[in-house]
Here is the input.
Amino acid sequence: MIVNLCASVTCETLRTLKQSFTIVGTGEADLIEVRFDYLREGVDPAKIRRFTPTPLIATCRPAYEQGKYQGTEEERVHLLLQAAESGFDYVDVELNTKAVINTIKQLKNTGAQTIVSFHDFKSTPKLQQLKRIHAKATTTGADIVKVVTTAQNYQDNLTTLQLVADVSQTRKVVSFCMSEEGIPSRVLSPLFGSLFTYAAVAKGIEAASGQLTIAEMREIYNLMRL
Here is the structure.
């Protein structure tokens, strides 16, 4: 089977961003997530798009989603629209975004694929609650639903893996757990039907707790003969 890996790039400058693209530009990453909220200099999505032919995901996490973006919500959404209009293949929009349905509609009008994401930074709700969250997210009209929780124990991994197994038959979904205890679900979610999973470019620049590096993930999948 094919396992799709997305490299999360958390850089403060365009120079280091381009360097990160070079590191994962040899086929190690199937997608690259650009975390716009980490950038600390003038952002030009069109210029970033020209850095690599690899499919790109535009993400700009606000503070209420434990991101680093300091601008207004209107400015943040405008930046995501700019990325979509500049040729980014996917745009990630938080489920809690104000006027999320209208935002997703605008993004889809550009031709970009949309991801609506839900994050629980404290725990992993029960399976039925996650299914309700997933169902709510699908009503936004997004192409992909992403449900990410935090594992308090290894058993929590089974909850997100079961969610993926249940809903991936009819919907495009990405789901796994954050935290060190959540590493198994990061690795195994594609085997259960997750569209892709995330990894860091290198140690020390992870976008979330529990992220392994691209190299580590590829080594694991090679050992699994995937």
